[in-house]
Amino acid sequence: MRWLFSPFDPDPATPRVRRFRPVPVRILIPNLITLLALCIGLTAIRMAIEGRIELAIYAIVVAAALDGIDGRLARALKATSRFGAHLDSLADFVNFGVAPALLLYVWVLGDARSIGWLAALAFALSAALRLARFNAALDGPESPAFAQDYFVGVPAPAGALVVLLPVYLAQLGLPSPPFGAAFAIVFCLAVGLLMVSRIPTYSGKKASQSIAREWVAPLFVGAIIAVGLLVSYPWEVMSLVTIGYLMLIPFAYMRYHRLKAAHDAREAAGSEPEPAPVPEGEQF
């Protein structure tokens, strides 16, 4: 049996072969931000279960802000990866599908019992389907240039913030509409349908790629004012932003189809065969 367990003394001068390649830190940073957003989303679920609705909403808003940062940071650092894209989608499902649904159920949908729970399930499933469609589109053909400034349906972060509009209005002290649970159920289902629909909505990707120099200082001032207003008057600002976003959807729909018609017309004109040259003797 000695040959089975023969002593082996490796040569210290022999270089050790690395089994795994080192991962650059710049690739880890966007994923860490995504994980931080996921932790905040899970904390929002805890706050909702404990009945601390305001803190739960704050957590969802912060998670939405971080969700807007991680993707842009990954592209800026050239750290995009399939792992990061799938991790971001899983975090979005928890933060903007599960957390808002549970928050609404604890707040008012629970009054309708099973019907309210079905509405919460429908919203969470709509978020899952919307994110699955987004991931599938990553492997699809590249969209035209005009379509890159639009989302297909309401994105998950926007849907999560929009579906909480009844909570914002209640925090403002407005009287709840008759049959408050029924109104919340209908509104929750409507937002879920917007998420899985094919309605184009503004994405603002092109607007955020570059900014003219003369607009840099006003942008900083505007951002500071916006943050100050959000901190001082959170429910008023969230209500106005949500209503404004919903009012922009018809304009985005009309603008998208106008651009699509112009694009299709240019493609049709470019695909038509050019007429054969007429010989000089046959010209009129």
UniProtKB/TrEMBL annotation:
GO terms for cellular component: endomembrane system; membrane. It is an enzyme of class 2 (transferase). The chain crosses the membrane at residues 28-49, 89-109, 115-138, 150-169, 181-199, 211-231, 237-256. It is found in: Endomembrane system. Residues 214-250 form the CDP-alcohol phosphatidyltransferase C-terminal domain. The keyword Transmembrane helix applies. Its main location: membrane. PROSITE patterns: CDP_ALCOHOL_P_TRANSF. It holds the Pfam family CDP-OH_P_transf. It comes from the Bacteria. One of its GO terms (molecular function) is CDP-diacylglycerol-serine O-phosphatidyltransferase activity. Its EC number is 2.7.8.8. InterPro entries: CDP-alcohol_PTase-I (IPR050324), CDP-diaglyc--ser_O-PTrfase (IPR004533), CDP-OH_P_trans (IPR000462), CDP-OH_P_trans_C (IPR012616), CDP-OH_PTrfase_TM_dom (IPR043130), CDP_ALCOHOL_P_TRANSF_CS (IPR048254). It is a multi-pass membrane protein. GO terms for biological process: phospholipid biosynthetic process. It catalyses: a CDP-1,2-diacyl-sn-glycerol + L-serine = a 1,2-diacyl-sn-glycero-3-phospho-L-serine + CMP + H(+). The keyword Signal does not apply. Keywords: Lipid biosynthesis, Lipid metabolism, Membrane, Phospholipid biosynthesis, Phospholipid metabolism, Transferase, Transmembrane, Transmembrane helix. NCBIfam families: pssA. Belongs to the CDP-alcohol phosphatidyltransferase class-I family. This is CDP-diacylglycerol--serine O-phosphatidyltransferase. It comes from Agaricicola taiwanensis. The lineage of its organism: Bacteria, Pseudomonadati, Pseudomonadota, Alphaproteobacteria, Rhodobacterales. The gene is pssA.
